[in-house]
Design brief:
This protein is mainly β. It is built from one helix and seven strands; from the N terminus they run ββαβββββ. The protein has one helix at residues 29-35, and strands at residues 11-16, 19-24, 42-43, 50-51, 64-67, 70-73, 84-86. A five-stranded mixed sheet has the order 2-1-7-5-6, covered by helices on one side. It has a two-stranded antiparallel ribbon with strand order 3-4. The longest helix is centred in the middle third of the chain and has 7 residues, at 29-35. It starts with 10 loop residues before the first strand and ends in a 5-residue tail after the last strand.
Length: 91
């Protein structure tokens, strides 16, 4: 994936499962992860099927993951420099 418009907001580094990725400050975390090629955010608790951002407005909670040690919805969480995101271990 790539961004279709120019954006002057600064790029910041965030940690995702121990890897540093660049993202635009203020972007929804779900968008930043998708642009970095990380579409699978967790596994479904029943079948273990991959799950990712679906509604992008906080209703479905499919994008639930750990951000700085707390469960957050990636679609509602703005990117900020230095945030630590864990995709592994989320049900």
């Amino acid at each position: 994936m790539k961004r279709l418009v120019q954006d002057e907001r600064p790029l910041v580094a965030i940690m995702v499962d121990g890897d540093s990725i660049s993202a635009r400050a203020g972007d929804p975390l779900a968008t930043a992860l998708a642009l970095a090629g990380r579409l699978r955010l967790r596994a479904s608790p029943n079948a273990g099927a991959p799950r990712g951002a679906f509604c992008h407005m906080g209703v479905c909670q499919e994008c639930l993951l750990h951000v700085d040690g707390a469960l957050r919805q990636a679609c509602l969480t703005p990117v900020r420099a230095g945030m630590a995101v864990e995709l592994r271990g989320v049900p």
